[in-house]
Amino acid sequence: MIEVENLVKNYGEFPALKNLSFKVAKGEILGFLGPNGAGKSTTMKIITGFMPATSGIVKVAGFDGNKDSLKVKEKIGYLPENCPLYPEMTVSEYLRFVAEVKKVPYREIKNKVFLAMENTGIIQVSHKLLAKLSKGYKQRVGLAQAIINDPEVLILDEPTVGLDPKQIIEIRQLIKNMAGQRTVILSTHILPEVSVTCQRVVIINKGQLIAEDTPENLVKNRQKSPEIHLKVEGPTEEIINSLKKMTGITTVKYKPLTDIFSEYILEATKEKDLRREIAALVTSKGWGLYEMYQKEASLEDIFLELVTEEKTQIKSEDV
Q1: pLDDT of 68-116, one tens digit each?
Q2: Is 171 in contact with 142 (CB distance < 8 Å)?
Q3: pTM reported for the whole predicted model
Q4: Which terminus of the chain is more exposed, N or C, with fewer CB under 10 A?
Q5: Burial code of 61-84, b = ≥16 C-beta within 10 A, e = fewer?
Q6: 279 within domain boundaries
Q7: What is the pLDDT of residues 209-218, one digit of tens each?
Q8: What is the span of the domain harbouring residue 242?
Q9: Does residue 70 sit in the same domain as residue 203?
Q10: Same domain membership, residue 138 and residue 117
């Protein structure tokens, strides 16, 4: 559905994008991630036809963004980070205006406006002035204007920025409901949101692709040795020595909490889950096991690791 191939964008002598390439399948929700200044917004503006690329190819639904820019724009709904709303208009007036701008056939406008409001949960505020709406409802209106012409592709730039937790959950669910119906590129700094919303992730930094996979595979393939945390009551030195002797445990660290109660942090190999054996050891010795869990890496951990690696590589190349 979306093809980005060798995309280059230079602002004067500054290279914002450096031969960036990726694809998004039809009906897929793609998380588009990167630190500030990575080139995310530039990429989305080029895909939507807001600005031209220096070189490279962007295709949407088979149409070339350079040769068929109007056809591409017809296929896309775009929600920028700060959606331009007209505060003096009511919600329904604004959506009718957007529908007309997007050349929705006149006889279909009423129905399209109703469907957009229904799908984004804003029918109850349809007669309110945009100036009177909360941040959450303004974001919903922004999403409604993006889908008013029933586009095949949605480009969403930070759709939940500034929202409270309840509003974030509601907008997230709206986006998830579009899976399979529309192709979505979602850019956000809230990485847990990507984990539960997106089927695949593209991470860029300094205008270059640094990772591309499902959230689950990124975490699984990049996760380091498992880290097991436990709180045990008993003789500290004896506990440490016993844990060190266990096959599969590579490192034992501890933090005293009381004279006979400590927290232990164990690094283990990936071969097998050692928690059952650790619990058996502790109970067989008559020590008190108060807590044990294995810390799992998150998408946020992997993102920070990848970006840090990339920065190190760039510095090394510069040297």
Answers
A1: 888 888 889 998 877 889 999 999 999 999 999 999 999 999 999 999 9
A2: no
A3: 0.76
A4: C
A5: bebebeebbeebbbbbbbbbeebe
A6: yes
A7: 998 999 888 8
A8: 224-295
A9: yes
A10: yes
User: For the chain, how many structural domains are there in total?
Assistant: 2
HEC secondary structure over the chain: CEEEEEEEEEECCEEEEEEEEEEECCCCEEEEECCCCCCHHHHHHHHCCCCCCCEEEEEECCEECCCCHHHHHHHEEEECCCCCCCCCCEHHHHHHHHHHHCCCCHHHHHHHHHHHHHHHCCHHHCCCEHHHCCHHHHHHHHHHHHHCCCCCEEEEECCCCCCCHHHHHHHHHHHHCCECCEEEEEECCCHHHHHHHCCEEEEEECCEEEEEECHHHHHHHHCCCCEEEEEEECCHHHHHHHHHCCCCEEEEEEEECCCCEEEEEEEECCCCCCHHHHHHHHHHCCCEEEEEEEECCCHHHHHHHHHHHHHHHHHHHHC
